[in-house]
Design brief:
The structure holds two protein chains of two kinds. By secondary structure, chain A is α+β, with helices and mostly antiparallel strands. Helices cover 28% and strands 29% of the residues of chain A. In chain A, strands 30, 33, 34, 35, 38, 39, 40 and 41 form an eight-stranded mixed beta sheet that branches. In chain A, strands 3, 4, 5, 6, 11 and 12 form a six-stranded antiparallel beta sheet that branches. In chain B, strand 3 and strand 4 form a beta hairpin. The chains are: A alpha+beta, B alpha+beta. Chains A and B meet through helix 9, helix 12, helix 14, helix 15 and strand 30 of A and helix 5, strand 1, strand 3, strand 5 and strand 6 of B.
Amino acid sequence: MKAPYSWIKELVDISISPEELADRLSLCGAEADAKPFLEGNFENVVIGLVVELEPIEDSDHLRKAIVDDGSEKFQVVCGAPNVSKGQKIILAKIGAELKGGFKIKQAKLRGVESFGMICSETELGISDDHSGIMVLDENAPLGENPIEYLKLIDTILHLDLTPNRPDLLSLIGVARDVSCLFDKKIIRPQYEVKESSDAADKFIKVSIDDADACPRYAARVIKNIKIGPSPWWIKRKLLLSGVRPISNIVDITNLVMLEMGHPLHAFDYDLLGSKEIVVRRALDKEKFTTLDNKEHELTPDVLLITNGVKAVAAAGVMGGLNSEVKATTSTVLLEAAYFNPVTVRRSKNIIGINSESSHRFERGADPNIVCQVLDRAASLMAEYAGGEILSGIVDCYPNKIEPAKLTLRPERVNALMGTNISKERMIKILEGIEFGVKDKGALEVMVPTFTADVTREVDLIEEIIRIEGFDSVPDSIHNSGPLFTPRHADDNFYDSSRNIMTSLGFDEMYSPGMADAKLLSKVSGDNPQLKVLNPIADDLTVMQNNLFYSLLKAVSHNISHRNVNLQLFDMGRIYLPGNPPYEEEKIGLTITGKVDDHWYNKGRTFDFYDLKGAIDAFLRLSHISPIDYVATRHFSLDESCSFELQLNNNIIGYAGLIKSKIAKHFDIKQNVFAAMLDFKLLLENIQQEATFKSLPRFPAAPRDLAVIVDESVEVGSLMDEIKQSGGPLLEKVELFDLFTGKQVGDGKKSMAFSMIYRSAEKSLESDEVSKVHKKIADNLNKKFKAQIREA
Amino acid sequence: MPDIKDIGILLAEAESAISVANSPDDLEAISIKYLGRKGQITAVLRSLKEVPIDQRKELGAATNKARVKLENELKEAAEKFGKGEKIANFDPTLPGVSHRIGAIHPITKVLKQVNQSFERMGFEIAKGPEIESDYYNFEGLNFPPDHPARDMQDTFYVEGDMLLRTHTSPVQVRTLKNSKPPVKIIAPGKNFRNEAISSRAYYTFYQIEGFLVDEGVSMADLKGVLNAFCRDFFGEGLKLRYRPSFFPFTEPSAEVDITCFLCGSKGCRLCKHTGWLEILGCGMIDPNVLENAGYDSEKYTGFAFGMGIERVTMLKYMIDDIRLFYNNDIRFIRQFI
């Protein structure tokens, strides 16, 4: 909504600056920004007279004009079709700086020198109309500043309105708040309706099929009008408000809508083709062409204005091409109606047009203002289009909508706001915004029908506080709620997970959540995908069903920016279809590239054990038991390195090497190791903190054991056997060396374990230790054909 | 036969060894080599009895002097090691053994700070699903069907008659339904809106929702809490401005601006020359929302607020493109270690 400052001033006598007014309005519920209507340097822009005009050789549209500004003559080349000798025009002389920093310089066109420019509305920034130059009236004074002459030096208040404030979609509405803020009366425009003896109801009958959708339809008939341009004062108001002037009749309907907030529509009466208006719902697939010459196929959700047979307007949205006011129109049917907000909203959605009219109706117009707007518009049409207003308003209003009556308890206002506003002040505010108030202890408030959104006591409280201002609310806590609130385990786990992952060297990434359906299926195969029904882009049509996707996206992005060594984690969600669709929280990890060379350690390529070590450390620090890595087949993971992560017989996730052909879809050529863990399952498996164990009282007996086995033998199974054979005396076993090579023989590997033996009851004798140690060696030899290496 | 010159050579040798010693172990080795039981200086002292008597006294004195000198120098050098002083060939400017430290995403960083601020005021963290029903996202929050307020939030719909939540406010309805007053919650989380992607807008974003419902909760309590938070988060000395606004789930509603911390409210590019930065929306919970959740809105009142995390993160770190949060470029993320 654009509210010209000069127009507000016509309606309320205020003296503050537009900028201050904008600030004040912003603090009472209408976010306002004050901007000058025109930007530019108009010092060298003057009113001029075209004294000579002649064509230029070799040009079909350029002409040479001599313009007199009253003291000097200028030769100007002009290409506008509407320029003619004797016109008063706007001349931008050399040095003028027009809209967008457009500087006027001396120029030569087709060999003809030009010392300025004759301006259209576009160059001046008045509108985007550049169909021709602006022509001023005969009385325009030569040499004067045309912007001043046209009263276009103004500031526009750009109001960013919330949907609850349809009352501010008019200048009178804005003036109402302003008048209340500054305690001034509104000066309403005066008008008089002079009716002829002919009665309007002889020309038109109105019937409403659906009174819920259209509670009121009123019309006036104006005869013998002459279509022509509007007077400058109307055009000016429209231009300042950002509405393009068209013709007197159309301009007047727009002017009255801007002024009073209620949309009007003018039909060419003769084109209606009948003497009746029937308001009804559209038939299924009924066709209708709006006045922008677009045909629409309708559904019964659309409400139509018809002539009894065919549609002439989509109610509250837009008029029809078939009954549009034209240059030949002589009789006008002027409509002012009240349509149900939901009906208009649905109609507008089906037709796909957001008009000034639908914008107002869907937010809630005032059903009880229609006669005033008809009178105001008719009187202007009589005055500026020579029309004859037929007597009477044809008004179909079966069930009058009465102003709501609400009770407001002043103490409730202060209790809810924490304020100390007096009852008198509340009355003053409510009356200031034209609510009726009766003081009966509590206040009985009559809510005018121009405020669609005030239906409860709390809405009245809002009206009071927005005028009184939130500065009146103290900054003090009286009720801070519960004294204690818990912190939940999952929040702690979220925080600790992030801390652990970063301390393990992983950078945190955030997956956005949506995915390219095709690319996603390359990663997760036939895993079902949750479709977005109204996607924002062709490559974001589904939700990610897998964190490998987002990890690969991030790896890919980074590699393409030459960040090739990466350790990333993502505490993201995956989304899956179902009834209803659902989501799961996951932790994704990825490692790719290499550890950089460092003077102290040589660099090396990351491998699976880096990922495994990180997962194991993460679990350990999270107080989760060690997990088993069980080889499995997984769509995303390479068969050679693909594991199910098992914890207490639950699968808590997967880890391994991403298949190279999947990585290739993301333009990744290096190995990417990745894991996806289930947040909830991990959380359920966090162990209680262990209780204290006494420190050992007896000494440890360390021993080493080196064995040679076939390469196919897994360390894990050897470890299991060692632990089992070692029994209670074996406190700890660790693999400290692993190698293959000539000295161990082809197809063999050598492993060295360090063991700690200890008894809780006594110091172990060397013999006792040797006995257990030998048993372990024997069992390894028996089960794994392990050859024991002598130290 | 040892000569007095040999003592000088031995001493010089030992001193030179001390000067290049790299560790206490090196010093120990030097001490053993020269002063130990089989050390070279010890050997000289032991062989004194074989030296002709006329030379014995002089040689003895010189050797003893050398022994004492060496002992002192070893002691001194050992002390230097103890203090971590540079001895020789030791370059403390060499980088230490590297430990890769991961970076926390800036949104996490800010969320954590915001959470902690409210947790210190006694708010409990709650969460909810991102795939939501129309009821929790809209209707339960007093967005009637076919109301223009729905245009304020462009919604993504998914299969199964569900949507992606457009704000964290559904957690309000869910929590209120499952709790008894007093309820004091913050709900951080991810949301989605179907808005064209640009440097100022992305299709997903984080928000933190907060609310308190109890008997006698007023707008003054809301101001108290938000003012305390803003001072804690943005720093002391800033001013707040509450502007009336509209959200279907609060009545009255307000938007909160803080004085621009970049220019001190003089007007700059960051605050678009207004001196103010809009940072959150808030209000008194609409009675319809309370009634929908089964509360007597005459008895219980409450306040609620919501703040966009990306927006405050961008303000705090002067980030100029919202898309950086979701590209996951480590050159960006690693700035927030």
